[in-house]
């Protein structure tokens, strides 16, 4: 095995040389932020939307506040996550941070500071239940107040925003954000398309017509091909086009999966060696082994009819699902299939493009092909 640092990366935010393309989308994000727009970006998990936004913000060199809503279970946790994100964005000493909040906050909650093993601080607040609504309002207004008294335009990134629907905070957040006008830019990121559409495109939703929707597509195969080939070549290894095509046929251009396969494949090669059939097969088997527990859990969360429908969709390549011959093959009728398909859409397992259904997670599809079909 080579000890050279791998040119590929997955499992977190891709930065610097690990980032592939997205030039056009980055420029659009930067322009919209400068114009004070609020932006909505939703795409399946592992599609690279967080990396895209953070790269755009780094190029702008603006102060930003980043909150990941995944795992937040109630309003108090949300308030503390927001407060901690603001505190971290100040990039100053803990003493100055505490003095700042004591100066700007009208309420007087206790400010708590804890430190991790590396000495990095984490901030939270102590307050009564009766103060909860007022504390939420004050914390969310801090970026706005900062913008009014400085030349900076704060940017708030709310990642996995679909989770807000479980917290019953839509109305409160919308009413506060609406007051901030173009002084603060908000970026809403989400991985559950069905929920994000209800939040932003439903006429009865608090966030209806409140954002610019920025669709992001998969990175072009030609861009990935150049990126992968360069990563191998610059580090004294070689990969032929046929193997790159195999990677992209499986990953469908998803940044996480493309980088994951390339990373494992690169590490399987000795210095000055090339990818071959054996290394390709071993790498794909290894990747599936690592993802298997997650995919089995997803499979087990589906009803029997949803599993049948998923097999049917894969077998039919997502087209002409309701033909008698294909339904007979899986012992389904049109009403049962229709209900199962709707369930899969609502669970964000599948989506539709034109008349064709497809699985949102390409590696899950590959796993089903290889191990369950």
The CATH C-level name of the largest domain is Alpha Beta
What is the tally of helical segments?
15
Low-confidence stretches: none
Largest beta sheet, briefly? 5 strands, parallel
**Helix amount:** 40-55%
Q: Which structural class matches the secondary elements?
A: alpha/beta
Q: What string gives the helices and strands in order?
A: HEHEHHEEHEHEHEHHHHHHHEEH
If strands are numbered along the chain, what order do they take across the biggest sheet?
Answer: 2-5-6-1-7
Which of globular, elongated, flat, extended, rod-shaped describes the shape?
globular
CATH architecture of the largest domain: 3-Layer(aba) Sandwich
Q: Find the count of extended strands (DSSP E, 2+ residues).
A: 9
Output the CATH topology of the largest domain.
Rossmann fold
Cα gyration radius (Å): 23 Å
Distance between the termini: 34 Å
Looking at CATH, the homologous superfamily of the largest domain is P-loop containing nucleotide triphosphate hydrolases
How many separate domains make up the residues? 3
Chain-averaged pLDDT: 92
What percent strand? 5-15%
């Amino acid at each position: 095995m080579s000890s050279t640092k791998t040119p590929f990366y997955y499992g977190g935010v891709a930065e610097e040389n690990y980032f592939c393309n997205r030039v056009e989308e980055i420029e659009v994000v930067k322009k919209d932020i400068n114009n004070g727009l609020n932006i909505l970006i939703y795409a399946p998990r592992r599609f690279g939307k967080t990396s895209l936004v953070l790269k755009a913000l780094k190029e702008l060199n603006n102060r930003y506040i980043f909150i990941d809503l995944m795992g937040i279970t109630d309003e108090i946790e949300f308030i503390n996550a927001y407060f901690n994100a603001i505190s971290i964005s100040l990039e100053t000493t803990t003493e100055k941070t505490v003095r700042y909040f004591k100066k700007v906050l009208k309420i007087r909650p206790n400010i708590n500071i804890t430190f991790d093993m590396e000495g990095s601080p984490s901030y939270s607040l102590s307050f009564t239940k009766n103060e909860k609504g007022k504390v939420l309002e004050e914390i969310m207004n801090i970026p706005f107040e900062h913008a009014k008294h400085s030349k900076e335009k704060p940017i708030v990134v709310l990642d996995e925003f679909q989770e807000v629907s479980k917290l019953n905070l839509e109305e409160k957040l919308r009413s506060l954000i609406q007051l901030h006008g173009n002084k603060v830019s908000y970026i809403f990121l989400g991985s559950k398309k069905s929920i994000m559409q209800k939040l932003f495109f439903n006429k009865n939703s608090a966030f209806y017509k409140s954002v610019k929707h920025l669709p992001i597509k998969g990175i072009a195969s030609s861009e990935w091909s150049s990126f992968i080939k360069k990563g191998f070549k610059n580090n004294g290894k070689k990969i032929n086009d046929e193997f790159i095509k195999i990677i992209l046929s499986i990953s469908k251009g998803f940044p996480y999966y493309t980088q994951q396969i390339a990373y494992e494949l690169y590490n399987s090669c000795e210095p000055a060696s090339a990818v071959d059939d054996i290394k390709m097969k071993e790498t794909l088997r290894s990747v599936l082994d690592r993802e298997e527990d997650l995919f089995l859990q997803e499979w087990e969360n589906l009803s029997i009819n949803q599993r049948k429908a998923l097999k049917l969709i894969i077998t039919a390549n997502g087209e002409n699902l309701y033909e008698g011959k294909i339904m007979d093959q899986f012992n389904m009728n049109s009403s049962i299939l229709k209900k199962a398909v709707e369930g899969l859409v609502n669970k964000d397992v599948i989506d539709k493009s034109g008349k064709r259904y497809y699985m949102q997670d390409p590696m899950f599809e590959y796993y089903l092909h290889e191990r369950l079909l």
